[in-house]
Each structure stands twice: as C-alpha cells, then as structure tokens.
Write a structure and sequence with these properties.
Elements: E1 19-21, E2 34-38, E3 47-50, E4 56-59, H1 67-77, E5 84-86, H2 92-95, H3 98-105, E6 109-111, H4 120-132, E7 135-137, E8 150-155, E9 158-164, H5 179-182, E10 186-191, E11 194-198, H6 204-211, E12 221-223, H7 235-241, E13 245-248, H8 261-269, E14 273-276, H9 277-280, E15 283-287, E16 291-295, E17 303-307, E18 367-370, E19 375-378, H10 382-385, E20 391-394, H11 397-401, E21 405-406
Helix pairs in contact: 1-3
Length: 412
C-alpha cells in the first residue's frame, strides 16, 4: 500500500457570520473552486469532494435504496475513476450503494477504518474492492512519524487530513454505544481560509477523544455526525468546531427522529446555519479558499455565502499522543485491521504517492490472486485476509506476473 502521509496541513480559526446572496459563485483563487456535494441519499451518508485540480474523493456510499440514484449522479459529475473512495465505517446506510457507485465510475484507491464488522454487506464490499480497486488502505499513521497526522494532498493547497482512527498508534475505541460508529473516519478538508469537517457517525466518545488532543478542529462547514442524532454533536465538540454552516444527511420522515431537536438546538447555540437533505435535497458547497458558497436543492436554490476567516496553520498543534486507554480497545479483541506496510512520507500538502523500495521476496513466498481479479498479492497482504473470495495460488512471482499485474496495496 503506497499513499502519501504528511503532517503539513492547515489550522483554522472561525468567526464570520453567514450572509445571503444571489449572484454567481465567488471568483475562485488559483484554479477552480473546491466543491463538495452532500448527496440526498435518504437515511444515510454520501458526499463527493472535487478539488480545484479535478481530484475526486467519495466519502461513503449511502444506503442500498439510493444506489441507482447515487451511481447516476456520480456519472454526471465524475469523469474517470475516483482518486479515492472512503468508507467512514461499516454500516449499511453508509456502504449500501458503494458497489454500484464503484462500478459506475471506478476508483483508484479505497480506504476504510479497518474495524472488523460481521455484516455480510461489508464483506461483499471488501471482496469487490479487493478485486476491482488496485490500492486498499487504512488511515494508519506513518510509523516513522507516529505523532503526526495522515494527510492527502488534492492539489492547489487542498488537503484532506485524517484525525481518527489512528490504529495501530492508538487502539480502536471500545465499550461505546456503537464501537463501529465511534471508530468512524473523521477527516478535515482544508483550502486556504476555509475548512470542512467530515465526521461520519462519530459518537460522543470519539468527540471526547479528539478534544483531548492538541488539534484545531475549527471548520467553516460541519457534516453533522450520525444524521443529527441526539447523542453526537456534543456542546464541547461544537464549541471547538464553531461551524458557520452545518449539513445533516437524513431521510424524510425517518424512523429514528433524525435530526433530534436537542442537536438542532446545540447547533443553533454556536451560530451554525443548518441544512438538511430531507428538506433541502442535495447540498452543494464550493470554496475558493477565501469564501464558501452553499446552494441547496442540487445547486439550484438561493446562494448563501460566508467569508472564510480562518488562519492557515497546522491542524496538529503539538505531537498527537495516545489518549487515555480506559475506553480503548485492548490488543486481545479481534476487531482491528491487520498491520499494513509502512509508506514513504513526502512533505507538503500537494505531495503525490511514492513507491516503496523493492524488496527481495522470501524463498518460500507465495503469491495469491482473488477470483476474477486482474492483480496478484503477496500471501501476507491484508487485503487477502479481509476477503473470502476464491483464490489462485502461485508458487513464484514470475508465474503470477505471467497472468496478472502486481497489486498496488502490497507491491508483490
């Protein structure tokens, strides 16, 4: 697995208030705007990031009932395969439409927390990803710099920084209301004086763990946790984020009562303007690095423009040390992703992937290919450990290379 990890990111401060506007999108800075589409997928989550340079990242795949709509929308917005597909956590309302989405447009890389979950739909997704996506990864901190954050450069100074989880530097949270939710991928997307905080279905335990760390959590736009459920979006967390705009992805008249009135009240207390996919449809947010413009109803509604008054600087305000292990998952619990390869770290927010150095294979090393896959892996590759598909075994690399190409996750 080869993906750049960097601690060079942006820190942000936020004080501006929203203002209504009806003119065109703000004049972009260098290149095109950064755009995030928060899709209307019903009771679930799916968002597409399009960077100024055209890099694309899909965060979650919505529930099964939205799969056709999501795939069609992606085909309208994306040309060529996604640069990265992220599953924040293995629940059906976030992964149910992923396979049709990936079939529709493809993906070069796939990332998920690596949190073990017994869901058959999750296993089916992992099998599909193992066969169709060349590079599969978890957000593992660079072992050579374990106190830094994993940062993915998307060009023109846009960075996507993963704040949680940090396995194996820190164990998964355990004993929470929902351990799968609590170990959602939490990421901060930064561009100039603006930022988006994407939190999956993070629980209060996740928020508390992040608040213990020397992190700048402030953001212009917050993707509200767990569809606006009453337990998440705690007051201390919202005080740290200080969002001007908040987007809640939830289904109309859903059975869970999302979003909760308590959550809406807490968002109001920090001055956030709230948009909901059940009422506002797809929410489209663009940033030129100086201001953020939001349109609801698939980009056809009135425009709301807020200035980005955030000061660029590091997200990690000091070394990111492990938090108290009292509520963390111990090493004996079988729910973590197998250890993956170290990666080469390249400084800078727009760094590109670096290939690891070649290694001489062990004399008894075998090589494996999954059924219908075009690539082969080392036998020790973690992708194989997460898949139940039928497999072909090769006794030598040369034999495997005659029929298939090397996988990008383990570089056999």
């Amino acid at each position: 697995m080869s993906f750049v990890r960097s601690s060079c990111v942006l820190a942000l401060l936020l004080t501006a208030l929203p203002s209504l506007a009806t003119d065109a999108l703000p004049t972009p800075g260098p290149g095109k705007p950064l755009t995030v589409h928060f899709f209307d997928v019903g009771q679930g989550d799916a968002a597409l990031i399009i960077s100024p340079t055209g890099k694309t990242v899909l965060v979650d795949g919505g529930p099964p009932e939205a799969r056709e709509r999501l795939a069609a929308r992606l085909k309208e917005l994306v040309t060529g395969p996604l640069d990265l597909a992220i599953l924040t956590h293995p629940h059906l309302d976030h992964l149910g439409g992923f396979i049709p989405a990936l079939r529709a447009v493809g993906a070069r890389r796939f990332m998920d927390p690596g949190f073990n979950h017994p869901s058959e739909a999750y296993r089916d997704l992992l099998d599909f990803v193992g066969q169709s996506v060349g590079q599969v990864m978890t957000p593992t901190p660079n072992p050579a710099a374990p106190h830094t954050l994993l940062t993915i450069g998307l060009g023109e100074g846009v960075s996507l920084t993963v704040l949680w989880p940090r396995v194996p530097q820190e164990p998964f949270l355990a004993g929470t209301r929902s351990d799968a939710n609590s170990n959602s991928i939490v990421a901060k997307l930064t561009y100039g004086r603006t930022a988006f905080l994407l939190v999956g279905d993070a629980e209060p335990d996740t928020e508390a763990a992040l608040l213990q760390k020397p992190l700048d959590l402030s953001a212009t736009v917050l993707k509200v946790a767990h569809h606006g459920g009453r337990h998440s979006s705690t007051a201390p967390f919202l005080e740290a984020v200080k969002p001007q705009l908040a987007v809640i992805s939830c289904g109309a008249k859903n059975d869970y009562g999302h979003p909760a009135q308590e959550t809406l009240a807490r968002l109001g207390e920090v001055g956030a303007r709230v948009f909901r996919t059940d009422q506002d449809g797809e929410v489209v947010v663009s940033s030129d690095g100086r201001t953020v413009a939001l349109r609801a109803h698939g980009g056809t509604g009135p425009m709301l423009v807020v200035p980005g008054e955030l000061t660029p600087g590091p997200i990690a305000l000091g070394p990111v040390e492990p938090t108290s292990p009292a509520r963390s998952q111990g090493p004996g619990r079988k729910s973590g992703e197998p250890k993956r390869e170290a990666v080469v770290i390249v400084p800078g927010p727009t760094a590109t992937p670096a290939e690891p150095g070649s290694a001489t294979p062990a004399a008894n090393e075998r090589y494996i290919s999954l059924k219908n896959s075009k690539v082969f892996h080392k036998e020790s590759c973690s992708t194989l450990k997460r898949s139940k598909s039928e497999r072909t075994i090769y006794s030598s690399r040369a034999a495997a290379a005659r029929e298939r190409r090397p996988a990008e996750d383990c570089h056999p």
